[in-house]
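User: Predict the complex with 2-acetamido-2-deoxy-beta-D-glucopyranose.
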Amino acid sequence: MLLQVCLAAILAVTVTAESVSHQQGQSHLFECDYPISADTYVINWYKDGTSVMNYLSGGEPAFTEDLDDRTDVQFVNNRNLEITNLRVSDEGEYYCSVIEIGAGGQSGDGTRYQLVVFVPPTITLMGGPYEVEVGEMMMSTCRANSHPPSNFTWTLPNGNVTQGAVLEITNMTQAEIGTYMCTADNGYGTDYESVDITMTGYAAPPMTTESAPPVGGSDVMRATGLPVILLYIASLLLPVVIS
Ligand SMILES: *[C@@H]1O[C@H](CO)[C@@H](O)[C@H](O)[C@H]1NC(C)=O
Ligand SMILES: *[C@@H]1O[C@H](CO)[C@@H](O)[C@H](O)[C@H]1NC(C)=O
Ligand SMILES: *[C@@H]1O[C@H](CO)[C@@H](O)[C@H](O)[C@H]1NC(C)=O
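Assistant: Here is the predicted structure with 2-acetamido-2-deoxy-beta-D-glucopyranose placed in the model:
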């Protein structure tokens, strides 16, 4: 018995709201499920504790505050609230409050709804340069139009994953060229965007999910290429120096 009273008290204090989520631009019908038995009654719809709609039975609904001047809100069946073109700013807790007028009239609230209006991420990459030289620094920042905000990860050409929106390589080596992929995830959607980092004279290895050895041969050619060219230039200069 005592336990039941305690449970009832806990339930009454922690009024939990029903979660509702929609993508921006979609519609939602909030139902006022408080049972109305009187002929004359007042309904208020509240958003985050502020009345946004007021209705006296037989009259016209008056939309106020956040719902003032909105062409995309309707009062349906003299009790329910519908928003047909949801905006991120519509997020909040909604509930109806009913006051019955006349003898024996009751008052009470309907179910509370916690509305989330989400925007799946769309990535924009900024930064560079994406064609680099050995020893150069490059940076790319991943941004996303997203609500709620996204978490970002970068997948490196060797398959390693780093957390965070910023990719920064301070001292480019040939082993680091390749395809880098940014992932944005906000729990309601995911977007991917890749950037190819190239190095003059080198081909990027294909993206792998495991560590791959550097492309064979290139280092050797690079290492022997320079002395050969110097030797060639020296041989051209030699006759001039002698004469
Ligand atoms: C990839 O990540 C592992 C584990 O964090 C690390 O030991 C390794 O050095 C990384 N490889 C490269 C090429 O950065
Ligand atoms: C960049 O890397 C090269 C090769 O590993 C090294 O010789 C050089 O000192 C590094 N430069 C800086 C600024 O760290
Ligand atoms: C984003 O990262 C934070 C901190 O690691 C984590 O609490 C949250 O759940 C993540 N959100 C998504 C959508 O992955």
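DSSP finds two helices and 17 strands in the chain.
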